[in-house]
Amino acid sequence: MAAIAALTTGGVAIGDSVVLVTDRDNTLIQDQFTNLSLGIGPYMFAGRVGPNGEGMLRRAVMRFDIASAVPAGSTITAASLKLWMAGTNSGNQTMVLRRLTRDWGEGNSFAFGGLGAPAEEGDATWQHTFYPTEFWDAPGGDFVSVVSATKTVGGVNFYTWGSTAQMVLDVQSWLDNSTANFGWILTGNESALQTVKKFSTREDELEANRPRLTITFTPPPPPNPADLNNDGVVDGADLGLLLAAWNTPGPGDLDNNGVVDGADLGLLLAAWS
């Protein structure tokens, strides 16, 4: 199941690990007068731009569809994020990952550079979660103060955040409650000019450069066949179902011999919760 789900979302499952590509990514572009975005652009940006961009901020947002690739009930044991940093005019900068607390969108805005393009319907902007009608509570994105991971990013190269305990907690929470999976925001050095870093998005033509989240997990135990009503315990309710099917093909034919009989009753009692 995990392998099939991962492949359909751009990931590759290997045993109890899965590698996912973002299902959404964008850049929040600080601007006082226009609503700009980079919905389907090949790059996202984080940090502060230089004087040509009026020293405004950029923050990258990204989301991975955890629930489609990891079986429900699994325990996440490791999570790491790998990004391709494709361009920079600055030296080493600390890049911080935090969990977003509001949903947001990726529209059809397109530009190659960090100046962005006019937002399209459904885009996330500095002001909007979904342009033009829905807004962040705080311009620049709503996110927790707790840091999920940090990484020093220098020259053009691949960089990996995690696995950290907080990243594991984030991914576990998104698996357990997919409706609260809003992904991460990546922020850079916002105190100095010209610190911005450019990262590839899922729209990069080179598949290897797209953002990838590697998740390691322990799948849930298989269901107990004696739990006939699937409520998580083997008890009197299951016994009643078995007895009601006595001398028939089931339910309750635990040994698969074609009839519910004493052998099946023994198996159910041995599995009693």
End-to-end separation: 28 Å
Assembly state (oligomeric): single chain
Q: Give the structural class.
A: alpha+beta
User: What percent of residues adopt helix (DSSP H or I)?
Assistant: 10-25%
Number of helices: 4
Shape: elongated
- Summarize the main sheet: 12 strands, antiparallel
What is the number of beta strands? Answer: 16
Q: Provide mean pLDDT, rounded.
A: 93
SSE order? HEEEEEEEEEEEEEHEEEHH
Quickly count the domains. 2
Radius of gyration: 24 Å
What does this protein structure show overall?
The protein is 14% helix and 33% strand. The protein is an alpha+beta fold. The protein has 2 domains: 2-218, no CATH class; 236-270, no CATH class. The strands form 3 sheets. Strands 1, 2, 3, 5, 6, 7, 8, 12, 13, 14, 15 and 16 form a 12-stranded antiparallel β-sheet that branches. Strands 4-9 form a two-stranded antiparallel ribbon. Helix 3 (236-244) runs antiparallel to helix 4 (262-270). It is elongated.
